[in-house]
Amino acid sequence: MMRPFVLLAALSLAVAALPASAQMRQQGRPAQEPQASKSSELTERLLLKPPAGWQEAGTARGQNALTTQLFPPGQNAERWNEMLSIQVMGDARADAREHIQRIVEASRTSCEASGPSPVTEGMSNGYPVSTLTVTCTKGRQSGLGGLVAVKAIRGVQALYVVQRIWRGEPFERNSAAPVSPEMLKEWSDFLRGVAVCDEADPQRHPCPK
C-alpha cells in the first residue's frame, strides 16, 4: 500500500512568502530543514495520499504560493482527463470559503453553464475546512465538460487547497457529469483523507505517527 505523502510548505511567516525549502516528502522520511529563523519556521504539514501510480508533473511557484499537479499513468499536463492539483498559499489573510467562491466565479466565466454545489464547512483536525463540487457543461475555450471537487483547509501558517479535476465530453445543462459512481466514490474517499497537522502543536493538530 502506498504510504501517505506529506507536503512541507516552508513559507516565511514574516514576509508571507514561500521560500525555496518548500517540498513534498514521504511520511517517515527526514525533511530538509527550512532556511528560516525559528520564529518563522513552518511546522504545518499537508497530509494526502496520491492515487496509485500518479506522477507529479512539476511545481509552479508564485509570489506567495506553490502549485503542484499530478496525473494518472499515461497522462500529462498537455493531454489529460484527470488531474490532482495541490496549492499551498502563504497568505495569512486568505479565507478558505472565499477561495472556493473564486473557483465558482471562474467557472461561471469560463463555462457555458456551471453548477456549483452548496459549500460545506466544518473542522478537520482543529482547522476550518470548506468543500464543494462544480460542474462545467462545456468550456468556452476547451470545448470540454468538467467536474472539480475542492477541499480548502485554513491552516495557521498557510491556506491549503486540494482539487480533483475531470474533463471530458461536454454534457447538457442540468445533467450530471458523465463520470462513474466508482470514480466519485474514490474522489470522496481521497478528499476525506486530506488533512493538515502541526508538528509543533500535537495537542490541537496532531500529526500521524
Please specify the SSE layout and strand pairing.
Elements: E1 5-8, E2 23-26, E3 44-48, E4 55-61, E5 65-71, E6 82-89, H1 96-110, E7 114-116, E8 120-124, E9 127-136, E10 145-154, E11 159-168, H2 181-192, E12 195-198
Antiparallel strand pairs: 1-2, 1-3, 3-12, 4-5, 5-6, 6-11, 7-9, 8-9, 9-10, 10-11
Question: Care to describe what's here?
Answer:
The protein is mainly β. Helices cover 13% and strands 37% of the residues. The protein is built from 2 helices and 12 strands. It has helices at 96-110, 181-192; strands at residues 5-8, 23-26, 44-48, 55-61, 65-71, 82-89, 114-116, 120-124, 127-136, 145-154, 159-168, 195-198. Strands 4, 5, 6, 7, 8, 9, 10 and 11 form an 8-stranded antiparallel sheet that branches. A 4-stranded antiparallel sheet has the order 2-1-3-12. Strand 10 (145-154) and strand 11 form a beta hairpin. The longest helix has 15 residues, at 96-110. Mean pLDDT is 81; it is low at 7-39.
Largest sheet: 8 strands, antiparallel
Class from helix and strand fractions: mainly beta
The helix fraction, in percent, is 10-25%
Strand runs, count:
12
| Unreliable stretches covering 5 or more consecutive residues | 7-39
- The best one-word shape is globular
Q: What share of residues are in beta strands? A: 35-45%
H/E series: EEEEEEHEEEEEHE
How many helical elements? 2
Mean pLDDT: 81
User: How many angstroms does the end-to-end distance come to?
Assistant: 17 Å
Gyration radius, in Å: 17 Å
